[in-house]
Amino acid sequence: MALNPEIRASDADRDRVAAALREHCAQGRIGVDELNERLDVAYRARTLGDLQKVTSDLPEEDMYELPVPAYRQSTPARRPGGGLQRTGMRAGWATYASVNLICFVVWLLTAVTAGAWYPWWVWVAGPWGALMLAGQFFGRGEERR
């Protein structure tokens, strides 16, 4: 229900408008000189209509402090190339490559020093790689290539 602009303003109403004007000045919407002029008008206001005229060109809420809607937060960011970022799968492949590189280097060092050429690192790379590929092709829709 809209307030009647002809209703007399109380001291609390004037103080509320003055606080809002100070906040708008702090955010840079109005300057200090304009703040002083508007405060004079606000403290001399007799009705709610007079107070509304003082703040009629200023927003009631700061749009930048409002929460971002949930659908915006869950939407994946787009790359310049157009595809969705697959950070989960990329991290998985990076971990896979790092672990297998370490296993291969350990195998290579032991093979050169001990002469045991059995490629045991394949037992790490093979099943894990198969699972990663299955996840890549049959995983959730936003993670698929």
Nutshell version of this structure?
The protein is an all-alpha fold and 145 residues long. It is built from 6 helices and no strands.
Description:
By secondary structure, the chain is an all-alpha fold. Helix content is 60%, strand content 0%. It is built from 6 helices and no strands. It starts with 10 loop residues before the first helix and ends in a 7-residue tail after the last helix.
Q: Would you list the SSEs in sequence order as H and E?
A: HHHHHH
Number of strands: 0
Q: Helix share of residues?
A: 55-70%
Mean pLDDT reading: 82
> How far is the N terminus from the C terminus?
53 Å
* Molecular shape: rod-shaped
Q: Note poorly predicted spans.
A: 81-85
How large is the share of residues in beta strands? under 5%
Biggest beta sheet summary: none
What's the alpha carbon Rg, rounded to whole Å? 33 Å
List key phrases describing it.
about 140 residues, mainly alpha, 6 helices
Ordered list of secondary-structure elements with their pairings:
Layout: H1 11-26, H2 32-44, H3 48-55, H4 70-74, H5 87-114, H6 122-138
